[in-house]
TrEMBL record:
This is BPL/LPL catalytic domain-containing protein. Keywords: Ligase. The keyword Protein biosynthesis does not apply. The keyword Ligase applies. One of its GO terms (molecular function) is biotin--[biotin carboxyl-carrier protein] ligase activity. It holds the Pfam family BPL_LplA_LipB. Residues 2-187 form the BPL/LPL catalytic domain. One of its GO terms (cellular component) is cytoplasm.
Amino acid sequence: VDYYSYLVSLLPRDLECHYFDSIESTNQFLSNRPFSNNTELCVARQQTRGKGQYGRTWQSQKDGSILFSIRRSFSQQRNLNGLSLVVGLAIIKALEDELSISGLTIKWPNDIYFDNKKLAGILLENQTHSSNQVVVIGVGVNYALNEDMVCETPWVDLAALTKELPDIRNPTASIIKHVLALTERFELKGFADFQMDWKRYDMLKGKQINIEREGNYITAEVLGVSSKGALKVFTQNKVEELYSSRNINYI
C-alpha cells in the first residue's frame, strides 16, 4: 500500500484504481470486471502473462516497466479507428513533458520507438455493453530493464534515454493522465483532430512495407495516416487504406 500511496496522490481522485505488486495481466483483470460506466485503472509492478498484439506475450520484470491498463467507455457513435494512435501520442507527450525526451516516433498502429528500438507498446481490447463501446487500453513502457532481457524486437528503455531516471511512479502518473485527457478529446472529436499532430511522429511515412495477400507479397510505400487513423499506402498504382497490421511486414 505504501508503494502506491504516492502514485495515488498524483492521480485524479475520481479514478477507480486497482493496484498489484504482481498480476497475470492488467488487461485481463479489467476485461473480467463487471461492466461499469466509471473509468477504471489497473497498475502492476509486474505481469506474469502480459498480453501483446495478436496473442503475443509482453515481457516484463518487476519494476522494469511501466505497466497499466485503463478501461473506459465511448459512445456508440464514436468510430474507434485511430484510438491506439491517440494513446501513442499521449505516451509521447507525457515523456516529452515529464522527462524532456525527444526523438520518439510511433510505428503504426501501436508501438513507440526511439532510434529503431522499441520503447513502448499498446494493446486495445474492445467490449460492447448495451449502448456503450468499452475499451481496455493496455500500456507497457520499458523503464529500466536488465541488459540480459531477451526479446526478438530490439528494445530501449527510459534509463537509456534520461540522464537522471526519476521514480517510476512519476512518469507512470503522467502517462496515465495524458491518456485520460487525450482519449476524452478523442471521444469528443475523433482521430481527425489529431491527424496533424500525428505527422510529427510518423515512423513509417515514406518507408516500404510488404502486404501479404493470399500467400503473395505486395510491396507498398507508406504515405501517412488518414483522418480515420488508417494507414495510407501506395501500391500497384493506387492508394489504399489499411485498418489492420496483421498482414503487414515492415521492411
